[in-house]
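Forum > Structural Biology > Help requests

Title: Can anyone predict the 3D structure of Geranylgeranyl transferase type-2 subunit alpha?

Hi all, first post here. I have the sequence for Geranylgeranyl transferase type-2 subunit alpha but no way to get a structure on my laptop. I'd be grateful if someone could post the structure tokens.
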Amino acid sequence: MLTLVYSTSSLPGRQRLSLSLSLSLSRCYVTLAGDLSNQKFESHTLAYLTFVSYHRRNMHGRPRKAYKPEEEAASAAKAAKLRGLQSQFMANHHNKIYTKEAVDLSTKLLEINPEAYTAWNYRKLAVEDKLSRIESDPDLVKTILDEELRVVESALKQNFKSYGAWHHRKWVLSKGHSSVGNELRLLDQFQKLDTRNFHAWNYRRFVVELTKRSEQDELEYTDDMIGSDFSNYSAWHNRSVLLSSLLARKADGFLPNKKIPDEYKLVQNAIFTDEDDQSGWFYHLWLLDQTVNVETPLLTSSWPSHGSRISLYAGCSNGSFSKLTTFGSESGSFPLVLYFDQAVGGVSSSTVTIDSELKGNEDLVWEPVSKKNSQVSCVWVARLKYISSEPCFGKEYKVKVRVGNSPGIVSSRGFNFSASYEFVFTAHVHDTVEESSQEGIVSWTDGFDIWDAESKDLNALATLDRSNAQMDSKWRQEAIAEEIDLFRELPDSKIGKLTLARLLMAKAMISDDAVKGVHYNEILELYKDLMALDSSHYQYYKDEHSVALLRKVTSSTEDLSGHLFRCRNMNNSVCLRLNNLSLSRIASVEKLLFVQMLDLSHNELHSTEGLEAMQLLSCLNLSRNRIRSFSALDSLRHLKQLRVLDVSHNHIGEHSVDTTRYLCSSPLSNSEWPQDEVGSQMPSLATKYWDAYFVLRDLNLKQLDITGNVIAGDEFSSFVLQVVPKLVWLDGKKLEI
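Reply #1:
Sure, ran it for you. Structure tokens for Geranylgeranyl transferase type-2 subunit alpha below:
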């Protein structure tokens, strides 16, 4: 038996909806898929689904007792009484009867079943009705509201995990006529019954805010709770909430470089007392995040990078130095890319200024590379024009970009971008159009030259680890180094190996290039061990192994140059080969913004998430991976320069029910569907292949290979030709125009 927990966030008032449904395993997946297909979710709503194993005899590690015959009889009598009360109550509710007798009936109902949420809503309506009928008499108002608090307290004694009861108590106190002095005492009673009751902890935060109790006092309370029970996850969580606030406003005695090392010592006591308890490990992971990350957003990288030189041609946009060609920009512009370490908003012509002799770039439009309707992103792109009505060919132009000189760039968490940055590059505009092999088929096997490891080009092409120079890393390095030494002494265990791998990754991210390689090699070995030790979490370890491997590849110009090539047939475009590495996840793209051709073939990728940042990408090889649908390629819609795509020999079309399809909006809920020309001409095929349609229609491909997928065939090929009218090569064959 399974319990399906379905939760949504960003609903009005930050409410949470939890529905528990007992489903048989055979019906569960079908029911889930059908439910999703009928739901219309707003793009800003986060919906996530979790399957939780449930054993009827054991809940949260606490065994349940079997019912005795007399208990079964009592339960049946209680159910009969409940049905009678429920019928009378619903009649009162529908008829809007708020007499004393009717309200008392709801009280009896809630005493038996505190989870009767409709009864709590009814009482709110009854209270509002009473308050509307009396004159402003503070004592009478207080009497009415205090009665509600009494009913709630009685209900909580029946079930102190009742959502409805806790929400009703919050509602009553929010009226402002009741004393809150008794609330912390009441909470102490309930938290003694169950120290990890998250309802009580959530309500405690609400009461603390009402009473203006200091965060320092609450932090001391978590000390007491953790001291009496290291396994109190709710206390650890509340501690992280309090510390986040105290550290953010730099309260007295709460500087990160002082407080965080102390917190490591506290959580070490919990971990080494009982290493099998997860509460301390989760808090340790949170501490590590606070150690490595900074709250204020940082500019991680850009393209063009500082000091680079790019060559531009009439009718096409070319990359840096030796004619590094993207597939051409008929609009006479090339992308400027800013990559931040966290999602930010407010990037505009007022917060990013451009000084250049190139005309027509006074008011650049910056766009976030993100999901639909989102105005925050790690990646922002503007297009700089280099062709205007005035002749400018055969000249060099200095372009200076200033980021953050004026306030306005703000992270999604509300922190301002304060580390302003300036980078300068040179644009050489040529007066001739280079010959292009654009109409010929692009091969991934011929015409590539090995990158010269001694070349100075790469140092200017790739901006590596810019963010490290913008953060105070000494105390961070010391804290992480102490933790690494400590965890090396921990007995060999899965959680110990995982934590050590995370610590080494954190150290590598803030260390000098000279020692990064050693850290990454050990990290990769740890994740290999974990994949062998813990098969139930194999995919997670596999993904983390891929991230570590890509971090290693991009950690230095020496490592990166071993994977770089020049493609002679594509005007010496920069090609990065990351094939045959068993990658299951893409990472470190902020260091690869200059790449124009990317070979990711013969890996284990399920999605292209992350590639949207690589705005110069013109050719992409994803053949022989584990991609199951076109919706897994959704990020490619942002690559305006992409002309060649190879997704041959994947698993597209194999799975009749594919959860990755829900990454794209359903055609039934897409507002653009009725106005679409292809959708109108081929409605049946557009409906059948809607995920392919929504991805391919935004691409300007000239070469596509889909052979070796179940979806491939004459029907799908004819559909592709309608959706991608500029296609020249399909599945290795030139199309007749």
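The chain has a mean pLDDT of 80. Residues 69-94 form the longest helix (26 residues).
Shout if anything looks off.
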